[in-house]
Sequence to fold (256 residues):
Amino acid sequence: VGVGHVGSKIEKLARILGMKVLLNDPPRARTEGNSGFVSIQEILAGSDIITLHVPLNMCGEDMSYHLINEATIGLIKPGSWLINTSRGEVVDGFALQQAISNGLISGAVLDVWENEPVAHPSLLDLVTIATPHIAGYSADGKRNGTVQVVQSLGKHFDLPVMDWVPSGIPLPSEAEIKIDCLGQSLEKTVYQAILQTYDVAEDDFRFRSNPADFEILRGNYPVRREFPAYKITLKNSVPGAKEMLEALGFSVIESR
Fold:
């Protein structure tokens, strides 16, 4: 739900992983036509995973405030998962809390919260994964955001900075990943590769341990790099693993 810059990246990733993807983005549908887009009702009723990537609009044609509420949660296919990395107020926290408690959905993953930097303790206890608004906090994401700001300023003030890029982005502590695929499935191999670049459980643990440190955790966030920063050596590679990992952005070498 919401297929802008971030939503498009999630669409690409999901397709690489073999998922069927439904897209809902009313502003794009009005501009580009309805082909390729579906209604929010179809998303809710037909998806195993619903992920939100919309701006927070408090009113108007594309109002997203409490887009997920008691009524819309009632449309969600039983057993589905909800992920919100957009804005906290897009989801009615009380309605979500009730839905999880009553088993209407299997679980939720929240990176954003109503009334940030405060996360409601009851909801925090119920969600499966909880993080303090750091989904876009990779070093690569910060780099790209900085470049966009500098280029916008350069364009506005006619400054010679359009080719500027920051240097010295820290490398991952373990930039080379070795995986022995013997006896593993394609899915297990890809899962293992991704988990070695970033284990969200560590962010979840830090946040749950000190939820009052919301801003401190954001301000002192450790270096996290995205897939292109990593090189993977696959021993006893399984069919399709190299192609899928390269499509995700990894550099991959197969060995015997």
Notes: The chain has a mean pLDDT of 95. The radius of gyration is 20 Å.
